[in-house]
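Q: I'm writing a short explainer about Aspartyl/glutamyl-tRNA(Asn/Gln) amidotransferase subunit B for a general audience and would like to include a description of its predicted shape. Could you first generate the structure from this sequence?
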Amino acid sequence: MQWEVVIGLETHVQLQTRSKQFSGASTTYGAEPNTQACEVSIALPGVLPVLNKKAVECAIKFGLAIDAEMAPRSVFSRKNYFYPDLPKGYQISQFELPVVGKGKMTIQVPAGKNTEAYEKVINITRAHLEEDAGKSVHGAVEGMSGIDLNRAGTPLLEIVTEPDMRSAAEAVAYAKKLHELVQWIGICDGNMQEGSFRCDVNVSVRPKGTEKFGTRREIKNLNSFKFMQQAIEYETQWQIETLEDGGTIQQATVLFNPDTGETRAMRTKEEANDYRYFPDPDLLPLEVTEADKARVKADMPELPQALQARFISEYQLSSYDASTLTASRAQADYFVAVVNAGAEPKQAANWVMGALSAKLNAEEKAIADSPVSAAQLSALLKRIADNTISNNAAKQVFEGLWAGEGEVDAIIEAKGLKQVSDTGAIEAIINEVLAANQAMVEEFRAGKEKAFNALVGQCMKASKGKANPAQVNELLKKALG
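A: Of course. Here's the predicted structure. Afterward I'll give you a sentence or two in plain language.
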């Protein structure tokens, strides 16, 4: 029997606010345990929640970015459950009326072993505001467990997809695209190691060609794209083998162990009625007006797809170049700054995607931390364009910029890299090379084109690499008649 995997994602995006969802306590990461647990976080009697306006604006930004329906009136509910990391016994979330409704994202799924790259639309069911819980800490004190409530109340936007994905590759492509988008629009820092972007993946399998969904199991808190791929592939195979062996799948919440590459059941999966949702009596309904949306939209950056289209139309870049340059907002901004400083767009694209990216990757630096500024790279590219230096010499200048040896012209001067473009000087070099290499000259005249390239090489060597290659080619052809 052939099987089909069905996947949906629930992603918890920590919003970039200085204070918590319903209180003024700090959200700074890494503080001493429980130093950011205010009266609201620890549920002291009589305290009341106050909604964070910045978090609402973040939700609106996301809704606009995915062209989603947005509720003019949404409601906060109490999601009741009893774990020690949530002192009040319930989480404030949104259930029946979320702030962001149906939307969609287009993803690019890379080529696999037996598949070509393709595009796919992933439908977003909803995105709702809620607060995070605290954290259980095991082993900080030998033989004991503790609770750190610093995260309790941290603003989250939970983004839920339809079960539209049919492979681990599609799920990872969606998660990466979402990760890129929330950083691009400035609502999340995207730091997966710190828990700012966490994915829960619902996986089920069914016989291929059938419409009815299988029983799903939810893999919780995946904070790595690599682990997501591994977890989905293992879980899919486990479910298929279980069904083929005559077993049944029980709906459950499971955890992925990266050390073993396996998933294991943590608890039976709760349904919505287990949480006994009801509207929170301490919070008024949230109203989002057209004026609110217009104000937030005016503050948003140009979105990746719009920027790609502009790079193609305005700068005549290829679709591949435009897509690569908009892989992150920081990279796109850097490229635009290089061009705005006077560099030719295609040449700027080649250097940003090539030499600069290679150097950043080798040293594990973000483009925001590049030792070579956009203005410096632009100045370097202008010296290539005006024939002051050759492409090979430019690589040396780039290394000098990276090492902090000064500005472009100073490095060119200090290293003696200025290109020889004087026709008389180049002709003199060519005459010397031709006189010393008569055998190559005869080979060329006998029809061997490789001899011409060898003569060009000799001319460049004689000039110590400083002669303008284009002029060398032109004057050498003339000299060989």
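A: For your explainer, you could say: Residues 3-291 form one domain.
Q: Perfect, that's easy to follow.
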